[in-house]
Amino acid sequence: MKFSSLMKVAVFAAAATYGAGMAQAADISGAGATFPYPIYAKWADSYKKETGIGMNYQSIGSGGGIKQIKAKTVTFGATDAPLKGAALAKDGLVQFPMVMGGIVPVINLEGIKPGELVIDGPTLANIFLGTVKTWDDAALKKLNPDVKLPSTAIAVVHRSDGSGTTFNFTDYLVKTSADWKSKVGSATAVEWPVGIGAKGNEGVANNVGNTKGSIGYVEYAYAKQNHLTHASMINHDGKKVAPETKTFQAAAANANWSAEPGFYQILTDQPGADSWPITAATFILMHATPQDDAATASALKFFDWAYAKGAKAAEELDYIPMPEAVVKLVEKSWTNDIKGKDGKPLFSGASN
Predict the structure, then answer these.
(1) Which of 89, 25, 19 is closest to 260 using CA atoms?
(2) With contact defined as beta carbons under 8 Å apart, do 220 and 101 qualify?
């Protein structure tokens, strides 16, 4: 069974008890980003076992998560493309980071081992622009002088849905390629010059896994658990780096989480010899004055539990937990900004 299938079982199993009428607290409903789906599913399973409270999370992409929280059809939305302060204020939303991870180029090329192929930002942009068409292109040969590259045509796979993973991936391409910046730009959904679209990180992972000569981009947990071949990259400082905990941490090390409203922070193309160039945080969106006080309070308890007890599980899937200092800022924002119908805070305090 594929990793994504296992995770779906875990998430919906976590909600099953509530569906049977056995849970004593408000069920938690969420929708959005596929980037954090593996860790949200793992947390949901563990939380259900510990508390009996389920979480139903729909992995539909960041764009869908933003739409659903605005429509008030879920307790929380999840997005890897954070909203800026004005957008949050307009819809009465509160935003905070939950976990961090890395986005990696994945390839299906016979004879190439994980991490063996090296790629840089300009070449990656040219592949997705369609100007680098074959695996033995001069640009790839220059980056990989000791790798035997075939003349196979490159099959590009990209997201077809509104995606925070796409937002961060294209943000990186904008920062490293003037052509990409002028011709395509960065957004949760763009007009892709070439390639085939797939829904979710799951869809891209499956398409790359089944298509010889292909390249795509996914959150690292999907690459690892689906046994896909990832590329190494040349980072902002010109150093070759691999996707791993220390390079994700290095990219996040200098983030100033309190600089903008809603903890807005983009972690792509960060300086530092060890920094992975496409690192990202994933965010939660909730209403400052929710429709369902009980469900919101239940969700905040779950997020508090995940911060306090979910770090090990996150690291096992190669995500980066939020630093303790940031967690304290986030939980203070819950107390100040998320209020029930009686005007009182819905968060009762940290569990650790």
Answers:
(1) 89
(2) yes
Mean pLDDT, the chain, rounded, equals 92
Per-residue pLDDT, 22: 34
Give the integer Cα–Cα distance in Å for 67 and 78.
Answer: 10
Q: What is the DSSP string of 22-41?
A: --SSPPEEEEE-STTHHHHH
Angle at 242 between CA 157 and CA 60, to 5 degrees: 40
For residue 164, give the nearest of 259, 106, 117, 97 by alpha carbon.
97
Q: Where are the beta strands (DSSP E) in 23-154?
A: 28-32, 55-59, 76-79, 93-107, 118-119
**pLDDT per residue as tens digits for the range 285-321:** 999 999 999 999 999 999 999 999 999 999 999 899 9
Integer CA distances (angstroms), 224 to 104, 210, 317, in order: 10, 16, 8
Can you read off the two tokens belonging to residue 254? 């200098």
pLDDT one-digit tens code per residue, 210-235: 999 999 999 999 999 899 999 999 99
Q: Are 296 and 338 in contact (CB under 8 A)?
A: yes
Instruction: List, for residues 174-216, the tens digit of each pLDDT value.
Output: 999 999 999 999 999 999 999 999 999 999 999 999 999 999 9
DSSP states of 262-297: GG----BT--STT--SBEEEEEEEEESS-S-HHHHH
Bridge partner list, 94: 286
Return the closest-CA partner of residue 42 out of 282, 311, 228, 245: 311
Instruction: Kindly report the length of the chain.
Output: 352
What is the mean predicted confidence (pLDDT) over 109-138?
97
**What's the rounded Cα separation, in Å, for the pair 79 and 67?**
10
Strands 93-107, 214-219: parallel, antiparallel or unpaired by DSSP? antiparallel
Residue 323 has φ and ψ, to the nearest 5°, of -60, 150
Residue 158, pLDDT > 60, answer yes
pLDDT of residue 349: 78
The pLDDT of residue 254 = 85
Q: CA angle, corner 200, sides to 92 and 243, nearest 5? A: 100
